[in-house]
Design brief:
The complex is a heterodimer of chains A (about 70) and B (about 325). Chain A is α+β, with helices and mostly antiparallel strands. Helices cover about 35% and strands about 25% of the residues of chain A. Chain A contains 3 helices and 3 strands. The chains are: A alpha+beta (about 70), B alpha/beta (about 325).
Chain lengths: ~70, ~325
């Protein structure tokens, strides 16, 4: 369906990043239905810096979480 | 009345403050480690320095390394350039090396190796010149809570050697810049967290530095205060001041910075304008909310893996380079 997609698990479901995300949104929904999964929300959007950070590190930069841990060197 | 306070005890407090900051590099943790430059680096950095001079560069860094005495590389090969007037951001989690890097730029820590030129001055040979031309807003505010807003700025003027005749104008100008004119006579201890930060930012500007470091200036503030502070930082930048900001907040970096460097483990893993960085993610994002447990998602994901060329999380940075 997607030539070159990146998939990340989110708290409420998944997010798919791809050049053709907008064109294939419907196909994705159909695929979910065929797989017996109920979609409760759906959104197509431009990437944010959160996505940038996720792409680089494979992890989100959660400032609140970071706040709790005192940096050793900083 | 004010003058009497100015020359009394708290004045020395301010000096102690500044001295503490400046003397930190004496106890540099890098003293045990010798420089580790390769011969090739010299020619390259000379070229950089000469071309940078004509382009008016605020910060020019070539292969900066800072290794602590215990062998930890806090900064591990940073090369970057910030032109004058830019609002530049370091983005990364705690311990990534943001603050350490800034402390090298501010001459508070000595680099283990690499070249660092700030406002045209070398950090090793001309640290004094650098200190005269930078403002540094540390994570911990350096204002005196027992003094009023005006007194705090006045003391900073004194500490930075602003000529006596210019102090009153400078104080008024800076109180106006951070919108604290109405509370100029209130003690700083009565201020909210955001107001304290604004006052702190004002005290860092008394000597009209062309370059200002803001080290996590909004950490711990509520979103409203944070938003308000952003406006002042923009104002400072609009005056032509180069700003290097560190932050853990993605939105802050996005809102304020002309250009960003993402720092992880002492290395810049990506840099560019916020828009460039977002473009490099590749395309658009489909967010799908699903009913059901994690296990279902995981199962679905594993099925998808065969048809996708890439899956998250990837172990290595996978942003396309510019």
């Amino acid at each position: 369906m997607f030539e070159d997609a990146a998939i990340a698990e989110t708290e409420t479901g998944i997010s798919v990043t791809a050049e053709t995300a907008r064109q294939h949104g419907t196909d994705l929904l159909v695929a979910f239905r065929d797989a017996g999964l109920t979609v409760t929300g759906f959104n197509v959007r431009a990437p944010t810096l959160d996505d940038v950070f996720l792409a680089i590190t494979g992890d989100e930069l959660d400032a609140d979480q970071v706040d709790a841990q005192e940096g050793v060197r900083n | 009345m004010l003058t009497s306070i100015v020359i009394s005890e708290p004045a020395s407090k301010v000096e102690v403050h500044r001295c503490t900051v400046y003397c930190t590099n004496m106890s540099s943790p890098t003293s045990d480690d010798g420089p580790r430059e390769s011969p090739d680096d010299y020619g390259a950095s000379e070229q950089r320095a000469s071309s940078a001079a004509t382009e008016r560069t605020a910060i020019d860094v070539d292969d900066l390394e800072l290794v602590y005495a215990d062998g930890t590389a806090a900064v591990d090969g940073v090369t970057m350039r910030i032109p004058e007037g830019e609002f530049f951001g370091f983005l990364g989690p705690n311990g990534a090396g943001k603050t350490t890097t800034i402390k090298v730029f501010a001459t508070l820590l000595s680099p283990t190796s690499g070249e660092v030129v700030v406002n045209g001055f070398d950090v090793r040979s001309e640290p004094r010149k650098i200190r005269e031309t930078i403002g540094y807003m540390a994570q911990e505010t350096s204002i005196d809570p027992e003094l009023t807003a005006e007194e705090n700025i006045r003391f900073a003027c004194e500490a930075y050697g602003v000529p006596r005749g210019e102090r009153s104008d400078r104080v008024a100008e800076l109180l106006d810049l951070v919108d604290l004119g109405d509370v100029a006579d209130k003690r700083a201890e009565e201020f909210s967290g955001g107001m304290k930060k604004r006052l702190d930012a004002a005290t860092a500007l008394v000597h009209r530095p062309p370059l200002v470091f803001l080290d996590e200036p909004t950490t711990g503030l509520d979103p409203k205060a944070r938003n308000r502070l952003w406006e002042y930082f923009r104002r400072i930048n609009d005056r032509g001041t180069t700003i290097l900001l560190t932050t853990q907040y993605l939105e802050e970096a996005d809102q304020l910075c002309d250009r960003l460097a993402v720092i992880l483990d002492g290395t810049i893993v990506a840099d560019g304008t916020p828009a460039e960085l977002k473009r490099r993610v590749g395309g658009e994002v489909l967010d799908v909310e699903l009913e059901g447990g994690e296990s279902e998602h995981a199962e679905w994901k594993s099925q998808r893996k065969s048809t996708c060329s890439r899956t998250q999380p990837s172990p290595k940075p996978r942003l396309a380079s510019a």
